[in-house]
Design brief:
Layout lengths: L1 E3 L2 E3 L2 E4 L9 H28 L6 H18 L2 H9 L4 E3 H34 L4 H4 L2 H17 L2 H8 L8 E2 L6 H5 L8 H32 L4 H29 L8 H25 L2 H32 L1
Parallel strand pairs: 3-5
Antiparallel strand pairs: 1-2, 3-4
Membrane topology: Multi-pass membrane protein
Subcellular location: Cell membrane
Keywords: Cell membrane, Disulfide bond, G-protein coupled receptor, Glycoprotein, Membrane, Olfaction, Receptor, Sensory transduction, Transducer, Transmembrane, Transmembrane helix
Length: 327
């Protein structure tokens, strides 16, 4: 904090989201590190399994691979800093670093939310208009929707972050959270805090709008599935939607707990738990849901892992033969 005359300018923020874990921070560091490692490896496995298996080159799996790729960066914006704070005495972040963390975390989260909405529409077309599906969901349109989700997710938050960067921070610098988020940071600004309510309303409208689109899509999807005469046909139709529905409930369930509470205040421990569920646990379960609930995905992952094992064993054999020949 830099002091000039009678005012002080904050140059960095102090995280206080883990106060209850100060004595046993290593006990939280180890599981958090394992979870982060699993998230990265799990989502990379899903991403490459889809890209390398030609049987999965269709809109649904292409959207899943893009979502998995975004998940890696989504968690990377916050978890490494959480891990650093757990083992360091100085739990701080610069204002620039805080703004960048907020921007990338929420931009990637927005991109994922838009992509989940796109995936719901894709499932709607596939089940409700199966004959027209190949002509509607073309590879070109799928690529445009994937890229458009990312571009819009990053552009929509840019004005908000630019506006926050112009606010004066001259008082307390303690963020009561485990990562930089809009409300905790805005509470520290030396300006009228009524803007926080406006921020809450904007975020709530965006969340509710996306949830409504997905919910209406699935109401229509379930109505159509229930009309399928054969039990096998109904089960197959439900199985194609189960993974996406599970991820949707995890993602928007945690988002709603985090951002649809307005002026309601929770105890610090509950705030920390909700933040961990939103930023860590939901991404942790996503690759599990996509791999365990889908036979094609499991087969592709097994194929990917086995091909790497065979390649590794083959390289060891060739190295061994080369050594023998040279001897």
């Amino acid at each position: 904090m830099v002091t000039t005359n009678r005012t002080s300018t904050v140059t960095e923020f102090l995280f206080s989201g883990f106060p209850q874990f100060e004595d046993g921070s290593l006990l939280l560091f180890i599981p958090l590190f394992i979870i982060y490692t699993f998230i990265v490896i799990g989502n990379l496995t899903v991403f490459f399994a889809v890209r390398m298996d030609t049987r999965l080159h269709n809109p649904m799996y292409n959207f899943i691979s893009v979502f998995s790729f975004l998940e890696i960066w989504y968690t990377t914006t916050t978890i490494p800093k959480m891990l650093s704070n757990l083992i360091s005495e100085k739990k701080t972040i610069s204002i620039t670093g805080c703004l960048l963390q907020m921007y990338f975390f929420h931009s990637l989260g927005n991109s994922e939310g838009i992509l989940l909405t796109t995936m719901a529409i894709d499932r709607y077309v596939a089940i409700c208009n199966p004959l027209r599906y190949p002509t509607i969901m073309t590879p070109r349109l799928c690529a445009q929707l994937s890229v458009g989700s990312c571009i819009f997710g990053f552009l929509v938050l840019l004005p908000e972050i630019v506006w926050i960067s112009t606010l004066p921070f001259c008082g307390p610098n303690q963020i009561h959270q485990i990562f930089c988020d809009f409300e905790p940071v805005l509470h520290l600004a030396c300006t009228d805090t009524s803007v926080i309510l406006i921020e809450d309303v904007i975020h709530a409208v965006a969340i509710i709008f996306a949830v409504l689109i997905i919910a209406l899509s699935y109401i229509r999807i379930i109505t159509v599935i229930l009309k399928i005469p054969s039990v096998e046909g109904r089960q197959k139709a439900f199985s194609t939607c189960a993974s996406h529905l599970g991820v949707f409930l995890m993602f928007y369930g945690s988002v709603s707990l985090m951002y649809l509470r307005f002026n309601a205040t929770f105890p610090p421990i509950l705030d920390t738990v909700i933040a961990l569920m939103f930023a860590v646990l939901a991404p942790f379960f996503n690759p599990i849901i996509y791999s365990l609930r889908n036979k094609d995905m499991k087969a592709a992952i097994k194929k990917l892992l086995c091909s790497h094992c065979i390649h590794y064993i083959w390289s060891l054999d060739t190295d061994y033969i080369s050594i023998k020949l040279f001897k």
